[in-house]
Amino acid sequence: MSTKSHPTFHFERELLTQGYKMIVGVDEAGCGALAGPVVAGAVIFPLDSRIGDVRDSKLLTEKIREELYPLIIDRSVAWAVGSASVEEIFEMGIRQANYLAMRRAVEMIAEADYALVDAWTIPHLRIPQRGIIRGDRHVKSIAAASVIAKVTRDRQMVRFHEHYPEYGFMKHKGYGTKEHLEAIAVHGPCSIHRLGYKPFQSVL
C-alpha cells in the first residue's frame, strides 16, 4: 500500500462482521522525544464519519491537524486520551510507559470491545486487540487516534514552552533537534526532560 494512500475502514468492517460493535483505534505521540510525556489517543470512529483528510498525523501539517482535531471529536462515537508522565518514563522505560498511556486511553472508553493498535499489542488490556504495523497509514480509526494524540501532546508542549522558553519547546515539541540539543548543552535539563535518555547521561 502506498504511503500516500488514505487509510480505510477495512479492518473495522471485518471486525463488525465478526460481531464486534465498538472498535477503538489506538496510537501514541511523543515516544521518540527527549522531553515531555508520551500521549496516546483512542477513537471509536463511525464508518460514515466522512472526514476524508484523516490520515497518519505525521503526514499532515500542524494547521491541518488542528482543523481535523475538532471534527474527529465531533464525529467520533467515543474518544479519549491517556498519558504517561516524564517520571513514569524514567521509572519504567519508554516502551512500558507507552503501553501504559495507550491502556489508560482505551480504558477510559468503557464501551470499547476491540482495539486496533498501531504497531504494538498492549499488555494487560481487558479487551481483544490486534497490533497492525504502520496502522496509522492503513486503518482509519488508528489514524484518527494519531491526530488526537499528536495535537494533544503538541498543545501540552506549547504550554511547557511558556515555563521554559529557553528550550524552544513551541517549535520542536521536545524532539531531539539541533536547536534543542544546543539548548540542553547551554542550560542543562529542566524538569520535563527525560533524564534516562542518552543526551543526559553526562549530566547525571
Write structural notes for this entry.
The protein has a single domain (10-200), classed as Nucleotidyltransferase, domain 5. Helices cover 42% and strands 15% of the residues. The chain is built from eight helices and five strands; from the N terminus they run H-E-E-H-E-H-H-E-E-H-H-H-H. A hairpin with an 8-residue loop joins strand 1 and strand 2 (38-44). Helix 2 (62-75) packs across helix 6 (140-163) and helix 3 (86-92) crosses helix 4. The longest helix has 24 residues, at 140-163. The mean pLDDT is 94. Endonuclease that specifically degrades the RNA of RNA-DNA hybrids. This is Ribonuclease HII. One of its GO terms (molecular function) is manganese ion binding. Its cofactor is Mn(2+); Mg(2+).
What's the gist of this structure?
This protein is α/β, with parallel strands linked by helices and 204 residues long.
List keywords for this structure.
alpha/beta, 204 residues, five-stranded mixed β-sheet, RNase_HII/HIII_dom, Ribonuclease HII, hydrolase, single chain, cytoplasm, manganese ion binding, Nucleotidyltransferase, domain 5, 8 helices
